[in-house]
Amino acid sequence: MMRAFAVADVRAAEEAVRAQLPEGMLMTRAAEGLAEVAMARLGRHGSRVVVLAGPGDNGGDALYAAAALAGDDLNVLAVLTGPAEHQGGLEAATGAGVVIEEWRDGPAGDAVTGALADADLVIDGILGIGGRPGLPEHLRNLPDLIGGDAFVLAVDLPSGCDPAGLVRSDSIYADETVTFSLAKPVHLMPVSEPAVGMLTVVDIDVPDPDAIAVQRFSHQDVASLWPVPGPDDDKYSRGVLGVVAGGEHYTGAPVMAVTAAVTVGVGMVRYVGPDAPTHLLRQLVPEAVFGEGRVQAWAIGSGLVVDDASSEQLRVAAEAIASDLPVLLDAGGLDLIEGPRHAPTLLTPHAGELLRLAKRLDIRAQDGATIDERLMQLQPTVVAGLVADRLDATVLLKGSITSVVSPGASELPTYTQADGPTWLATAGAGDALAGICGALLAGGLPPQLAGAVGALVHGVAADQANPGGPVRALDVAHQAGRAVAHLLSLPQE
Ligand SMILES: NC(=O)C1=CN([C@@H]2O[C@H](COP(=O)(O)OP(=O)(O)OC[C@H]3O[C@@H](n4cnc5c(N)ncnc54)[C@H](OP(=O)(O)O)[C@@H]3O)[C@@H](O)[C@H]2O)[C@@H](O)CC1
Ligand SMILES: Nc1ncnc2c1ncn2[C@@H]1O[C@H](COP(=O)(O)OP(=O)(O)O)[C@@H](O)[C@H]1O
């Protein structure tokens, strides 16, 4: 399991430790750890190091690390990028023989552009957790100036990224990011994680704050969360999932959803839908039963188009939404919810569906602005949070990194899972995900865990279905049960 902590909580935790230590000790630990990683990455293959040092403590870490590297006989150039710099760090670097250049505004000078183009290692210490999203104006073209062969090592976070991981912005793209004791949201959130590269946590003895901001389950975590049946269980006690999906037109979506739910071991599936998908399911998933009946949770909406749905489907869906049972709403099912329910609710939109839902319910940003394509693109998890708050529901926003956002009042962490190959971006994959998450809701998991664990299993199943190559959704649905078996077999830490 990985955990990330809010920037304010990290600052408070660091401050408490710093107060107990001699002046500068915490930064010394950070800089030593950073220099050690930098040396390891350089190996024997290079000696030209450019250290970019900004105005804050992040720049201080980088300058102290520059001093340590210069002591190792490397060719180290430090570029000061802000209006000021960490004085202790600058003195250490100068004293160790680091060559200092300035790029405080305007275009970079020739010495800086030449060094960046030829560097073997670039250490990015421009901005850390004190950074606002976006690179400083004069550094906008910096990513283009770094030579293609350079290994880019970011200090704490790639400069330009939003430390909270909420706002998409221009930034450095790192090969590796070294952070200190505590991961921050920037490292795990979908808008910023792609810029982080490999994440290395150097321990500087700062303890975890109490509140977790972002959490990610590892494969090993699944065994402790999965509803494994006991000897006294029967199909009803294990959970029956009602599925209202598909129609005369979209017959495949229910096949994907019901297959996935059955293969991951739900007690039983009851399917409600018109003739064409019902006939297909009778052939393809003979384990399913048909028509209404008692269920422990509902999965509603995959391949369901409201205008084309049967009157039975619309009636059953409306009753389910009005009930006190857990309900998952996917795709067309998202068009059926008008306000908060009084029972566990998991919404599983992709970005386009989330935008449509936010517009339909006239959900506004905190400043009153309407939610549009631009806001959705720049701040997807913020929009998910606004929808979660309005509907008192958990929102699973699909993507290469899937986020599971709960209402703010719940104080639950955001879960982000990045387990699937990019091949998973294929029609029907979301229907299989709805089946897996629905099975977990029926098995008694709360929506945030059903969403996060479901996304993990879905990603692993896609990986296993055809390792390294394209996958079709039905194969993901078929593989999901074997993926669960594999995850349950992993040794526990
Ligand atoms: N606390 C500890 O004990 C330890 C801390 N450690 C390290 O400290 C780092 C945090 O340091 P920090 O607080 O000094 O913040 P940091 O990001 O370096 O600089 C902020 C400065 O940048 C400026 N600025 C911001 N955004 C900007 C923008 N877009 N464009 C232009 N300017 C912008 C901002 O200006 P202002 O907001 O005042 O306008 C301010 O001057 C942390 O990430 C870790 O590496 C380690 O040593 C371990 C021990
Ligand atoms: N680039 C990507 N990399 C990995 N997984 C992705 C990517 N894009 C989408 N996915 C996953 O693929 C699935 C697509 O779901 P969805 O868009 O609802 O498709 P459909 O409605 O056709 O079933 C989701 O689980 C999503 O998380």
Q: Can you put this structure into words, describing what you see?
A:
This protein is an alpha/beta fold. It has 2 domains: 2-216, Rossmann fold; 219-488, 3-Layer(aba) Sandwich (UDP-N-acetylmuramoyl-L-alanine:D-glutamate ligase), CATH 3.40.1190. Helix content is 39%, strand content 15%. It is built from 18 helices and 18 strands. An 11-stranded mixed β-sheet has the order 1-9-18-17-16-15-14-13-10-11-12, sandwiched between helices. A 7-stranded parallel β-sheet has the order 4-3-2-5-6-7-8, with helices on both faces. It is elongated and about 80 Å long. It binds ligand NPW and adenosine-5'-diphosphate.
Q: Which fold name fills CATH's third level, the topology of the largest domain?
A: UDP-N-acetylmuramoyl-L-alanine:D-glutamate ligase
Overall CATH class of the largest domain: Alpha Beta
CATH superfamily of the largest domain: Ribokinase
By DSSP (H or I, 4+ residues per run), the number of helices equals: 18
Q: What is the global morphology?
A: elongated
**Average pLDDT taken over every residue:** 97
User: Which secondary-structure class do the elements indicate?
Assistant: alpha/beta
- Quantity of strands, as a count: 18
Head-to-tail CA distance between termini: 11 Å
The unreliable regions are none
Could you tell me which ligands this complex binds, including any ions or cofactors? ligand NPW, adenosine-5'-diphosphate
Largest beta-sheet details: 11 strands, mixed
Helicity level, as a percent range?
25-40%
Domain YjeF N-terminal: 5-212
Pfam family, one: Carb_kinase
Binding site for AMP: 398-402, 430
Catalytic activity: (6S)-NADPHX + ADP = AMP + phosphate + NADPH + H(+); (6R)-NADHX = (6S)-NADHX; (6S)-NADHX + ADP = AMP + phosphate + NADH + H(+); (6R)-NADPHX = (6S)-NADPHX
